[in-house]
TrEMBL record:
Belongs to the major facilitator superfamily. Nitrate/nitrite porter (TC 2.A.1.8) family. GO terms for molecular function: nitrate transmembrane transporter activity. Pfam families: MFS_1. Keywords: Membrane, Nitrate assimilation, Transmembrane, Transmembrane helix. This is MFS transporter. It comes from Pedobacter petrophilus. Residues 24-438 form the Major facilitator superfamily (MFS) profile domain. GO terms for biological process: nitrate assimilation. The keyword Zinc does not apply. It is found in: Membrane. One of its GO terms (cellular component) is membrane. It comes from the Bacteria.
Amino acid sequence: MSDLTNQPLSKLNIFSLKGVQMKTFHITWLTFFFCFFAWFGMAPLMKMAREQLELTKDQVGNIQIASVSATILARLLIGRLIDKYGPKIIYTWLLVLCAIPVILIGTSQSYLSFLIFRLAIGVIGASFVITQFHTSIMFAPNIKGTANATAGGFGNAGGGAANFFMPLIASGLTAVGLCTSADSWRYAMLFPGIMLLVCAFLYHRYTQDSPAGDFKNLDLAEKSKENTFLLAAKDYRTWILTIAYAACFGVEITVDNFAPIFFTDSFGATIAVAGMVAGIFGWINIFARPLGGVLADRIGKTWGFDGKTLLLASLLLVEGIGLIWFAKSGNIGMAIFMMFIFGLSLKMANGATYSLVPFINPKAVGSVAGIVGAGGNIGAMLIAFMFKAKASHLTKNVAGESANLHKDLIDYTSAFTLLGYIILAVGIAVFIFRTVMAQKQSQVEDLVLNPSK
């Protein structure tokens, strides 16, 4: 099969730009990269915004929750929309609309306005669903896991890049005299906003919905009549993967949001150092998430759906153990090392999850991707509430000035430890249900091959 045909590719060559499939692949992951960059652009700058706007710790917690909560509804909606209208037009509008709050958050003068803009920026997280749908439709079944995980991994690295580069951009703006140090976070956010508009142009100009062409030019009348969201929601495997994704991507979002403040408050790191350290976690995506997809595809060739699910369960178990160990680390060196270890298994689990998503229901890939993707943000939101609950409990029960100096570290220790045990439980549950899920998949594949049944 030639790379220039109108069929899904059965091979992924990341160094190729031949054919609409590979052009779409590269534009998709690059766009997703800047979406994540914009989504988490404020995370390493929160200390400056917190001080200038005089935000309390409770208000910062609400802002972090807002940054992931809007994505939940957005991912559910986007999944249905791309099934019906195609990814190109939906992605283009998402980028244009979300560029507005990214650019305008720098005008915030109060907690309320900052919270509203941060909530609106969270909608850009729905970009993940479009990315996974677009790579799923451009590549053949034998390589879907690898393609999805690679595009997702390269794109997720935008969160790490934001933690690394946004403090440098802010410092650079101050150094050349364009703004004061206190206002540098405001002007720095212009960069990701402008990049979203650039990506909107590239996406609309150089991609198409499928190898065969745009949805509007294809005969999809019969498909559009079906409610793909209900098709996805009625399959219990969708919800098992949703819970699994909450246990891996939900933790990733939490660390992306909280790590910079954690390292500054708990270990006394500077904003630049904390951003670079937290950036390590994000950069792992470049190879870890693709590795999860590659392993899943290879295991799937021999052991099928059951083998892929077993891989996912194993990675979740390793993640849970690593997270508990991370929580127990008493110094910044050990914390960084364990963040790398549990981050590696976590991001591989992300890739393994979305190697399974395209096979739940071929008629509702977008909706399945949207529901599972929303699960990641639901997990992040619940974790954020758990962190707040821990902080509130300690504030009421820990007295004394010396104790208060260490309460942030204690908060994270107890919260991350509990979170580790929860993930262990999810891993065990996926392990138990894997055989039933595989049997269901065999029935689905049999119906696809023999529709008369």
